Amino acid sequence: MIHTYIRHPWGLVFALIIFLIFSVAAVIPVEYIPLDTRYDKIQHASIFLLLTCSITASLRFNQWLIGCLLSIFAVASECIQNLLSYRSGSWEDLYADFIGIFVACLLIELVVRVYRVLRKLLA
Length: 123
Hints:
Number of strands: 0
Radius of gyration: 16 Å
Distance between the termini: 31 Å
Strand content: under 5%
Number of domains: 1
Number of helices: 4
């Protein structure tokens, strides 16, 4: 039953590790995060791009559905950061998250379409 939804179990483990790292990093003080904050927006977009791709590759669900669910998670993480006294959520971070999710969904759509065309040509 579970294999009807999971395509690659190790990819799902990888996605869960990324998800947990981002979740922990979202609630600890910025001083304890060992990343350069000059590239914060690129890091936000990259994390969500990687998260979207890894979850989509691991599960048998449409990438746009996964993108919508990750968008809700992005909004929730920024709202939670606004509630913490030592963190602050920002619209720019949320936009970067959305951009990463959207670019990942478009890339997956492109790869799937190219794969289908090549499969028809080679069959």
